[in-house]
């Protein structure tokens, strides 16, 4: 393998390769996947001089530790965390030079859930269906990182950004999700529909890249018969038998057999990627455009 590569010293709880995802394959049963917090992933690419489609690393909760085999420029964004190079603190949310062989440590999230590590040249694992993203549901793309793995890097294409620190939104203390009615809203009682948009929910610890699960009042169905599987989209709010809404995220299945009560605006989903378990959730109805 080329010297232009990253060695994974500590993989962390869940670190995956992500890019813009693989849209256009839902008819094959393949979800879009891609970075959950797309603006944060785009930011680290801009900071290190990568094009928007370059692959980055998405960390979960406790970061990761990497050792580049050649000198690289790195930027870390998303969930705020401590970043060090050979034990020395360096900037978070800004481009940082990391010499060959130095130890880059991306620490545990101080708030939020997911961090993004952009490296000059981008992570150059083999693409599958036009994307380098790890898809946890289908198993497409590279597997989650493990200790000792080596990731190839592409050649740098542009100079890094000249900024001290790039502004970023803070992880939410309350997750406000704007929703439009879903195709199966009429499968729920009028009281359940009112409760969905007026009662408080919280982010469940069972949430993952497939869906943000919630804890709160169960939604009662008006129709209890079986629903044949039908297509579902990013942001669909599906209600399983326990009655607690689940917001589908990047690795969601392309079909589902539980009714979809609403659909979340795409612009609100990056905040969902950073909502820690216990974060209050409100579903706010908005008119269709």
From TrEMBL:
Q: Which domain of life is it from?
A: Bacteria
InterPro entries given in the database record: CT_A_B (IPR003778), PxpC (IPR052708)
SMART domains documented for this protein: AHS2
Keywords, sorted A to Z: ATP-binding, Hydrolase, Nucleotide-binding
Keyword ATP-binding applies: yes
Per the UniProt entry, the signal peptide is: none
Q: Which residues form the Carboxyltransferase domain?
A: 27-289
Instruction: Supply the Pfam families for this chain.
Output: CT_A_B
Which protein is depicted? Biotin-dependent carboxyltransferase family protein
Organism whose genome encodes this protein: Streptomyces osmaniensis
